[in-house]
Specification:
This protein is mostly helical. Helices cover 68% and strands 0% of the residues. It contains six helices and no strands.
């Protein structure tokens, strides 16, 4: 008899707990899930709209590419190959970021450009030639590969209807905070 009472009380407590956990009286768990999905979709729409408004323009990302690629030039000129490798990867990462933002932008005349396709061609040839020169610590190959990459960049600019964007070998270090010397005396 005592066992029956204990089971009955535990069942009542468990049932009461389940009813208490439901968001509203008479609402079934299936209805609760459907309502939360609707709320999630609305929140997601709001988030997507907000995020679309915060995505940088391609010109902003390309300014980052130029900064990293210029630093790459000076690191290699100082034969600081680990730093050159770092800036190579940073440059490549910024280009891939640009492609995630918009792999098919329009030219000023409205034509769609397949930037992803252009970069894919560069990635398997010119970009790898530049990486190999850095990995081999070969200054002569580096200069040739760097120039070849600039030509590839310019071909992309022309394809995008922006032939006035002519990259060149940098003449001034883009920043003065990083020491390009591979064996600096300070800081140690």
């Amino acid at each position: 008899m005592l066992r029956t009472v204990v089971v009955f009380v535990c069942g009542g407590l468990l049932g009461g707990l389940l009813v208490w956990k439901l968001p509203a009286l008479g609402q079934t768990p299936a209805a609760s899930k459907q309502e939360s999905k609707a709320v999630d979709v609305a929140a997601m729409d709001t988030d997507v709209t907000r995020l679309k408004g915060t995505v940088p323009t391609l010109s902003h990302v390309m300014a980052d590419v130029a900064f990293q690629y210029s630093n790459l030039w000076f690191a290699a000129q100082h034969k600081n190959w680990p730093l050159a490798s770092f800036y190579f990867n940073e440059t490549r990462g910024r280009i891939k970021w640009m492609l995630r933002i918009n792999p098919n932008p329009k030219t000023p005349s409205g034509e769609v450009v397949n930037l992803q396709g252009i970069y894919d061609g560069l990635e398997t040839s010119t970009v790898m030639t530049l990486k190999d020169a850095i990995d081999q610590k070969d200054s002569v190959k580096f200069v040739a590969a760097y120039k070849l990459m600039i030509e590839g960049c310019y071909a992309c600019h022309k394809s995008a209807g922006r032939p006035y964007l002519r990259p060149m070998i940098p003449t001034v270090q883009p920043q003065t905070m990083i020491n390009y010397d591979p064996d600096p005396s300070w800081p140690k």
